[in-house]
Amino acid sequence: MTELSITRFIDAPPAKVWDIMTNRIDEWWCPKPWRAEFEGLEKRAGGVSNCTMYGPDGEVHPHPGTVLAWDEGKRFAFTDTIVGDLQPAGPFMIGVWTIAPEGDGTRYTAVARHWTEVDAKRHAEMGFDEGWGACADQLVALCEGQ
Length: 146
Hints:
CATH architecture: 2-Layer Sandwich
Domain Activator of Hsp90 ATPase homologue 1/2-like C-terminal: 11-143
Pfam families: AHSA1
CATH class: Alpha Beta
CATH superfamily: START domain
Strand order of the largest sheet: 1-9-8-5-4-3-2
Largest sheet: 7 strands, antiparallel
Family: Belongs to the AHA1 family.
CATH topology: Alpha-D-Glucose-1,6-Bisphosphate, Chain A, domain 4
Protein name: SRPBCC domain-containing protein
Number of helices: 4
Order of helices and strands: EHHEEEEEEEEHH
Number of domains: 1
Distance between the termini: 35 Å
Strand content: 35-45%
Helix content: 25-40%
């Protein structure tokens, strides 16, 4: 298995979820008490995705990457495999975030696709379910106005 995923139903229309996902990304992107800052996010395929995560004890984790897909209102995808001006980096994953209408709300799904089973297992052991689940829950709370 090289793919890990998280899904949530959000009791809000897709347009609202997309707006919050993309325009308020710093507010839900990493689990609290950590915080994320996107220094650059070009909303287009081939664009730059530069995010830094800051921990409560002074930790700083830069996450440079490239936007692979930006399908307005539906999905976006990033990778850490390519950074800067098409420079190769150590491949770890491709992340894909999608939304789709479901009943009166929206189905949110986040997927991490890894090159190897070892990378997927390492990501799971790093706390994928807990971390990405917390991010999904933070997005749900923002979208549902909680």
